[in-house]
Amino acid sequence: MIVTIDRLGHLGHGIARTEDSGPIYVPGTLPGEVVEGTPEGDRLLDPRIVTPSVNRVKPPCRHARACGGCQLQHASDAFVAGWKQEVVANALAGQGLDATFLPLVTSPARSRRRATLSARRTKSGVLIGFHARASDTIAEIPDCQLLHPGILAAFPGLQALVLAGGSRSTELSLQVTLTRGGPDVVVTGGKPLDGALRMDLARLVEAHGFSRLTWEGETVALRDRPALTMGTATVVPPPGAFLQATAEGEAALLAAVRRALGSQKRVVDLFSGIGTFSLPLAQSMEVHAVEGDAAMTRALDLAARNTPNLHRLGAETRDLFRRPLEPDELSGFTGAVIDPPRAGAEAQTASLARSAVPVIAAVSCNPVTFARDARALVAAGYRLDWVQVVDQFRWSTHIELVARLCRPD
Ligand SMILES: C[S@@+](CC[C@H](N)C(=O)[O-])C[C@H]1O[C@@H](n2cnc3c(N)ncnc32)[C@H](O)[C@@H]1O
């Protein structure tokens, strides 16, 4: 069967329209490409590109074919940027909105400072990497172009951890975050802890320079503080706490939030995490940070207390899905930052829509829920000034953005 790829789906698969059998999905292809293969259900097996797209490039990573970590290495940066922006524009159009886009910012190769890897003990040693495409197999990635070299340098230590505490029957998940004290590692799927394993793991943390090791929810070794710099502050996050995936992505999001807020003097940071935005913003304005996870709020609060010359920074633990800040609680703020999880912030947005907060910097990792929430704000009189896509998950289909909404004077 020969098909022509019409568009990319949200998982990055090429989608071809056929007259008789509905859409056909072909991973690794781009719009406009003519592809030949064997149809099976809604897939095209063993696809061969007959006519390549002008946007097709040689994948920069030698593992791209085997590894499922990246979905769009075969597409040029310009194509991916245009596609991501189009996904956001389409989501907004679906809600009757259009937007001016500021230039997209992409994180460089080899900049992922936080990644969750899969690992397994094998007969001959240990396998660590990302899953192969649509498969249980783990692809090894010694020359990965996505991960920060600091994470790749941690692989021998990670292998030693898996050898000590992994079984051949269970896959382990290793979340690794680069911190000033060394890699901070959170392991799940390992053997249950006993005295001997605790001692082994603590010895390996010392030997390989990890900052902290958390095993099945228990911190078993703390060699050095897993500290992160946010503005002028130092934050020690709780194990596994949310962190923007690249330092460059974080800087681009913060720059866009600052641009959106301008010279506001008193802002509320909703879904504040460990203070990614609150701490730098508090260098020039008063901030009230609200976050659902108490350990993250404590980390933010401690960082604020230990940082000189910040404006007042209050931190509150609160479930913003169940108990959003009400309009009267929002009344003293001249700006808001809102950065919810993928589900968006329906309840908090409804309350913002009834408030008089003049400016909102909306950060989102899901264009669909962002567009839904933006529509509610626009319906309540806010104006959508601009949107900027920040691509910190390069070569993936993941999309992040910042938008400015304001109440016209
Ligand atoms: C996308 S992260 C953003 C965190 C922070 N703004 C940053 O950039 O690091 C979303 C945050 O929302 C928090 N969260 C999730 N559900 C929540 C809820 N129902 N109420 C309050 N916070 C919640 C998470 O713990 C997480 O810190």
Shape: flat
> What is the spatial order of strands in the main beta sheet?
6-21-22-20-19-16-17-18
Give Rg in angstroms: 23 Å
Derived structural class: alpha/beta
Supply the number of helical segments. Answer: 10
Q: Per DSSP, what share of the residues sits in E-state strands of 2 or more residues? A: 25-35%
Low-confidence runs of at least 5 consecutive residues:
none
**Average of pLDDT:** 96
Name some characteristics of this structure:
alpha/beta, 10 helices, 409 residues, binds S-adenosylmethionine, seven-stranded mixed beta sheet, eight-stranded mixed beta sheet, single chain
Helix and strand topology:
Elements: E1 2-8, E2 14-16, E3 24-26, E4 34-40, E5 43-51, H1 77-94, E6 101-106, E7 114-121, E8 126-131, E9 138-140, H2 149-153, H3 155-165, E10 172-179, E11 182-188, H4 195-208, E12 212-215, E13 218-222, E14 228-230, E15 233-235, H5 247-261, E16 266-270, H6 278-281, E17 286-291, H7 294-305, E18 313-317, H8 327-330, E19 335-338, H9 346-353, E20 359-364, H10 367-379, E21 383-391, E22 400-406
Parallel strand pairs: 6-21, 11-12, 16-17, 16-19, 17-18, 19-20
Antiparallel strand pairs: 1-2, 1-4, 2-3, 4-5, 7-8, 7-10, 8-9, 10-11, 12-13, 14-15, 20-22, 21-22
S-adenosylmethionine is lined by residues 242, 244, 271-273, 276-277, 291-293, 296, 319-321, 339-341, 365.
